[in-house]
Amino acid sequence: MGSRAVELRGGGGSPVTAKLELPPGRPVASAVLVSCFACLGQSPGPARLCHALVSRGFAVLKLDFTAPPTGDDGAEARPDTVPSVDAVVEAAAWLRERYPPARLLLGHSLGGTAAVAALPRLPEVAALVLVNAPSGPEPILERLTAAEREAGEGEVALGPGRLRVLRGFVHDIAPARVAQALGGFPGAVLVLQAPEDRYVALEHARRLVAAARRPASLMLLDGADHFLSREADAGFAADVLGAWAGRHVTPVTEREAPLPPGVVEVHESGEGRFAQDVRVGRHRLRADEPLSVGGEDSGPTPYGLLTAALGACTAMTLRMYAERKGWPLEHVHVRLSHDKVYAKDCAECETKKSRVDQLKRSVKLVGPLTQEQRASLTAIADRCPVHQTLESEVDVVTVLEE
Which terminus of the chain faces fewer neighbouring Cβ atoms within 10 Å, N or C? Predict the structure, then answer.
């Protein structure tokens, strides 16, 4: 996945800071993600939600309406992007000129409210996802001072960070306008809401669902906070988003052509130091390193994928052999571990190297099998193709593409 900054213009010509995330290969669709995650600083929410779409072939243009808790110099930061409905429209227009049109709008907090208000100006949008989004400006207006409320604009604390709202934006996301936009939107709507959200009450989600033109889906994020600051909550929301978007936004006929058999593509994801996006056939995977070595732990390690390949191949081989023999094998469970051991401790090793890779494999066979059948299946495990590849001489050829 590629990543780069994008400079846009929002309402009144104010600058809009955005970031483009691209999948490996040609995007099958585009999405605009408008959020207020930056207030929290290091929430896993935006990365997880973005990856759920990029891994399915979306180009995602992200903009955040909030400022982080502090600037780089330790001073209080101010928002780079002033919230505006025009910013959402401009983001979609930027995508339309360069990539497939934005078929999906994904909005978090007031970013979600702005996304709803932008719908009448974005006929290409086919689906809308709202995460902890208010049905109007009330949750923010309540946090302004009396003088700011009278003026209709101001700057408020949203979590440890800050959000700056102007009179025009407050007018554009008035409850009546939001309800009217949803009532005229013919596409699919998904509302994700944390019932215990301290900034946006559950009633707002109910209003959004009730205002939708077609039946909308409401999914409660039990235990989550406004910013999806816990990894488990962000991951769950991303899983729901990915499955839902794949069903409602990218028909099978629009999906990217699968890679030929035997071909794998790996691209740096642009998220963290090590994360990689992997394409195999029509499938997309993520590889990463754990937090302990500087990764984001957003996917299995390369050795984890290698070990998983041996386990999957083992189970498939045993299943095919049992079916061919007509044996009553009901279930195969394979557990593996990878380690580096000293060659002198490895009875089967003939290398002169001091340390070698060792894969330990434990196979559990379920079913009314005889002892002879179990012994035969255990022996067959060593004949799975991946096992034979790992134990054979492997020639890796590297070429540099111009």
Answer: C
